[in-house]
């Protein structure tokens, strides 16, 4: 029987970096393999973060690249293969070719537990591999299990199995209520999320242990393990915790999250980058493109060079239009208005980080 491998992908962003630190501090006995998928188009600050993490972890972070035998940088190799067709939210070939495929080649057919840094204050699932030998775990969330596992555990057809899994545990006076919930079928009036929340509210550890017992009856990678330390995990980590972990560890917050002050028409605000990934990531907000233009003009110029034959990074707006003075002025004014509205609702030192709709893991969701 092949040994189960534990892996953790470093995107270059705050959440995956904090997760690597968290796992090292809380589960030092786990032999975790750390990796990053290098597109060749990352910001220098990303590479600096990875270097800092290697020092803290005392372990090498493996660099994975697509197009290993190409003389060109990975992204440049594939942009030619796609005849200049730029990636977008509707055609994320960059994720597939530069991250998913190198990752799946890296793990091969080995049973793998992949740790993912989706926070407890995020309402999203993230990417789940379609390969049966890869299982995702989310240590920062109240529910550490992936959606596919939950779907099976809470399925109406598995009620008896789920009840038997709970019956192996000491439930500290909660047996009757837990059995009542487990035996209640999912329906239009009682959906899966409600059932999940009620069981978690009755005991996170108990729920985790019951799910682990269920997994032993399946072919998931964790079924090959006699024990799993994270079933005892009750931590729920949110944005503020992430920045604290990075600062307290000495690894530091990636420099591109640091707010830079700007002034427009007598109004002062700050901007920064909200995500890791390529400097020309199509998930960027327009204010982030302005940040790139003003803070890294040489990289912005390179991003412009990719726009040809009608392909643009932003739908219906080439970068040459975005950097016209009157357009920059309007983008900054609109951004100030949005941040002022956000300040009235949320207190955060990283306002741009809370404004983005597509989180940094939009590009790094391949770190399964």
Description:
- With 368 residues, the chain is an alpha/beta fold.
- It has three domains: 5-145 and 233-249, Rossmann fold (3-Layer(aba) Sandwich); 150-223, no CATH class; 255-358, no CATH class.
- It is built from 16 helices and seven strands.
- The protein has helices at residues 14-26, 44-57, 74-81, 93-107, 147-153, 159-167, 175-182, 192-201, 204-215, 239-249, 286-295, 297-305, 319-322, 325-343, 351-355, 361-364, and strands at 5-9, 32-37, 61-64, 112-115, 134-137, 260-264, 267-271.
- The strands form two sheets. Strands 3-2-1-4-5 form a five-stranded parallel β-sheet. It has a two-stranded antiparallel ribbon with strand order 6-7.
- The chain is globular.
- The chain starts with a strand and ends with a helix.
Secondary-structure blueprint:
Blueprint: E1 5-9, H1 14-26, E2 32-37, H2 44-57, E3 61-64, H3 74-81, H4 93-107, E4 112-115, E5 134-137, H5 147-153, H6 159-167, H7 175-182, H8 192-201, H9 204-215, H10 239-249, E6 260-264, E7 267-271, H11 286-295, H12 297-305, H13 319-322, H14 325-343, H15 351-355, H16 361-364
Helix pairs in contact: 1-2, 1-10, 6-7, 6-9, 11-12
What keywords describe this structure?
alpha/beta, 16 helices, globular, 3 domains, 368 residues, Rossmann fold
